[in-house]
Write a structure and sequence with these properties.
Layout (H helix, E strand, L loop, with lengths): L5 H4 L14 E5 L5 H8 L3 H14 L8 E8 L4 E8 L1 E6 L2 H13 L5 E5 H11 L6 E12 L13 E2 L5 H16 L3 H4 L1 H13 L3 E6 L2 E11 L4 E8 L8 H13 L6 E6 L3 H9 L3 E11 L1
Parallel strand pairs: 4-5, 10-11
Antiparallel strand pairs: 1-2, 2-3, 3-4, 5-12, 6-11, 6-12, 7-8, 8-9, 9-10
Helix pairs in contact: 4-5
Length: about 300
């Protein structure tokens, strides 16, 4: 697995911006605040596509978000931050005091699995959170890559199509193994029913793309968040027998052309240590945009 130790990635340093009482108010966001929340997040769509995708798919208040959206406001009532705190903790902030407020809330969460954000912000967040929060299992550094037009047109892959529920038995073990290699947890073992339900819902939304030959999965990719400004991809996988043949590049380029017909940008994260994957995405035309840290909690 491409992991780095916690101490290798997250620095512990003194904090210089205290969060003084009554400077900000942090409360759960309710459904009537959805438009305001989306407007705030849409200022940096490449970085907030995950949260925007949750809201567009499920609404601002939904069990399917596997957490609660919070807003942090200043004395004038203006948003200084929005965060999803729960199974996955994601945040977008414009001030350090909003970051600290979200760290305080995250320490109280009963179901945290991971914390993810831009490298410099997560370092500060962890300093606030780690005072009496959950211990870190490990942390990894990831690179945010982006693809825009133009995309190189390659030979068409006739087998490329949206997945159907009939493909789910091919997809689940592959996706679960990818999750295990990234996080050390296999969702087919820890949450098989929930994992299957979530993946079936993804397929039902037309978000999973596959190439299947003679009953064997050859390529897959999943659209996690689908917005007019950005699409977030995960779980891009090429069968070992096709690696090095150019087949994976053809599949990814064909999918990118399809997605960029209605969105401005495609983004994904790749582990900083996975040089082979980085070369693959570079050949497909992706460019580096930012460094991210993901902290997996005990």
């Amino acid at each position: 697995m491409n992991r780095q130790t916690a101490t290798a990635r997250i620095s512990i340093k003194p904090l210089t911006v205290p969060c003084r009482e009554n400077e900000v108010v942090t409360l759960p966001l309710t459904q009537e605040l959805e438009a305001e929340t989306l407007e705030f997040l849409s200022r940096r769509p490449m970085h907030t596509v995950g949260m925007i995708g949750f809201i567009r798919d499920n609404g601002l208040v939904s069990e399917r978000n596997r957490g609660t959206f919070y807003g942090c406001r200043n004395r004038q009532g203006q948003l200084e931050g929005v965060a999803l705190i729960g199974h996955a903790t994601l945040m977008e902030t414009t001030t350090d005091r909003a970051l600290q407020a979200f760290a305080d809330l995250a320490r109280q969460s009963a179901t945290p699995h991971l914390i993810m954000g831009e490298e410099e912000r997560i370092s500060d967040f962890w300093n606030y959170y780690s005072e009496d929060g959950q211990d870190m299992r490990f942390a990894c550094r990831e690179l945010l890559l982006e693809l825009k037009w133009p995309v190189q047109v390659r030979e068409e892959v006739l087998e490329m199509r949206m997945a159907t529920l009939g493909d789910i038995e091919l997809l689940l073990p592959v996706h679960a193994q990818m999750a295990f290699e990234e996080s050390g947890i296999n969702p087919l073992e820890t949450d098989p029913d929930g994992f299957r339900e979530r993946y079936a819902r993804r397929i039902g939304r037309g978000r999973s793309w596959v190439c299947v030959e003679e009953g064997r999965l050859i390529f897959k990719a999943d659209v996690v968040s689908d917005t007019p400004d950005a699409v977030y991809l995960e779980g891009v996988w090429v069968s070992p027998e096709k690696m090095g043949t150019g087949y994976g590049l053809r599949c990814l380029s064909q999918l990118a052309i399809n997605l960029l017909s209605y969105t401005k940008s495609i983004v994904l994260l790749v582990n900083d240590e996975n040089k082979k994957a980085q070369r693959y995405y570079q050949k497909a035309g992706f460019n580096l945009r930012a460094a991210y840290d993901t902290i997996f909690l005990k």
